[in-house]
Amino acid sequence: MFKIALLDDYQDFCLSLEYLLSDTFDVQSFTDTNIFLKKVESERYDLVLIDFSIISIPEQGIHNGCNLIEYIKERLKEPPLLILFTGWISRNALEEGKKICPMADGFLAKDS
């Protein structure tokens, strides 16, 4: 089964997405960046969805979702597909995501 990890500091959003996707995919959602990072480093995921606004880990240089994507890509030999999502960019301005986080494999707007 296709395995997805989701990180968002808003638990209701995590639970909603987990509910919507869990019939078809193995979905694990996280609100804590440290726990999420340990799981991503120890388990194999096919797709990882990361919110731009996350709980930071300053000692590792992680202050937002873009920093976290860069950190994962540098540490994992075969990183999963890494998608950045945010409520700060509308679906009409997703091209701006490439400027904000060129390391991300894709972008999603929460309003889409």
Tell me about this structure.
There is one protein chain. By secondary structure, the chain is α/β, with parallel strands linked by helices. It has one domain: Rossmann fold (3-Layer(aba) Sandwich). It contains four helices and five strands; from the N terminus they run E-H-E-H-E-H-E-H-E. It has a five-stranded parallel beta sheet, with helices on both faces. Strand 3, helix 3 (65-75) and strand 4 (81-86) form a beta-alpha-beta unit. The radius of gyration is 13 Å and the shape is globular. The two termini are 25 Å apart.
Question: What is the element string, with H for helices and E for strands?
Answer: EHEHEHEHE
CATH class: Alpha Beta
Strand order of the largest sheet: 2-1-3-4-5
Q: Any low-confidence stretches, pLDDT <50, length ≥5? A: none
Helix content: 25-40%
- β-strand amount: 15-25%
Structure annotation, total helices:
4
Short description:
The chain is an alpha/beta fold.
Question: What layout of secondary structure does this protein have?
Answer:
Blueprint: E1 3-7, H1 11-21, E2 26-30, H2 33-42, E3 47-51, H3 65-75, E4 81-86, H4 95-100, E5 106-109
Parallel strand pairs: 1-2, 1-3, 3-4, 4-5
Give descriptors for this structure.
globular, 5-stranded parallel beta sheet, 112 residues, Rossmann fold, 5 strands, alpha/beta
